[in-house]
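S.,

Sequence below, as promised.
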Amino acid sequence: MLRSPRPRHRSGPLPRFTRGVAAALVGLSLAGCATYSDRTARARDAVTRGDFGRGATELNKLLDVDSSEQLPDVWKKETALTVLERGTVHRALRRYEDSARDFEAAEKELELLDIAADTGGKIGRYIYSDSATKYHSSPTEKLSLNGLNLLNYLSRGDLAGARVEAKRFTVMRRYFDDYQPDEAHVGFGSYMAGFVYEKLGETDGALRYYDEALAERDLQSLAEPIARLSAKSNYRSERLTGFLERAGDVDPVEGAGEILCVVSLGRVPYKVPERLPIGAAIGVADAHFTGDPTLLEYGAFKVVVYPEMVAAPTVFDEAAVTIDGTSVPIELTTDLGAEIRREYDDLKPRIIGAALTRMVARAAAAEGARAAGRQSKSGGDALGLLAALAVEGTMVALDKPDTRSWTLLPGRILVSRVPVPPGKHTVEVTVRGPGGRETHRSEVDVSAGGFAVVDVTTLR
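The prediction came back faster than expected:
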């Protein structure tokens, strides 16, 4: 006797449908909304092409203003950072007054990411996906802001304004001295502050700043100024004494004018969403991961999506300077790209730990939805799977990595400093690299005992 086959509950179409919905949910959740690095991509692309005007226009669109002379009426969670980006483009355009206005307006709105006071992994959770809150600048970004704005004033010959920025720089520098006393930070800012105090006739203050600048590396352009100032001051340090001994005999130059040339090459790394397998993520997070890792076995998403640092495109990576046709030395003062990378790498385990902890929470919620679905009279396991995917997918889509950072911050700062006789001089700065070469020509008039600043910012 033949028995009729026992009917099954949608054994054919439903599994295929379920797999399709699962794939759609996974794709949707991983796609999510545009991040900060996505929204600012057009501005960065324009800057990489050397079209700084277009870059400023794209940033103005994000700020909802009609021109670069305007500040936004309403400051939202990303406004201060976007104004900071525009101020950097203004520096490349040599619009120093506009740049200073943007930097100072942004600084009033920015909060500091206080790494030194981090407790309970709050920093990791913030950097991972707290893009709904106001942007907190990293210590290196904050210190760089003051250093670059000091240079804005110095480029305009405004020593009084530059002195104010030097004081702000000092306040932030002291934070670093307490947090990481054995590491050098943003040496170009100390160099510029020392230059300001030297030109103001404040010898001890100038030597203290130059002492800080030497913490990062020996700077041959400081040999003559330090030798000259040391003859007039009682300020001494082990570092200054050792530097002068290594520099050898230096003939101080009195009464001459001076040309200070500052060249900013490239951009620092910036953040983009990146995927990392769960196993590797657990290894990176180490002690910063809290939660039950077994719950991750039930999750549909086997990768962690987090904000990773990637290199910006490099067009120019070398610079040369001539004054009146004669080649003069130029040297690296600060590698901001390396400092930003080091700062991020120190935080990365906390960031990955925060991502994994949230993943566990999502997996737990999804497993609860799966169990509830299984108890349904119709659908059973399939309905449970769909419910779990819906819960987990929605939570992932709403939990995007925070890719905010100062994406247009210059990567490396180089300095050339040369005494010159009073009068008019021609300064040529040639930058070259994988993207070719270009020359920036400036005519300056230097008075006896005075100075002129030539600033070239490539941002690419």
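The domain at 32-457 is CATH 1.25.40.10 (Serine Threonine Protein Phosphatase 5, Tetratricopeptide repeat).

Coffee later?
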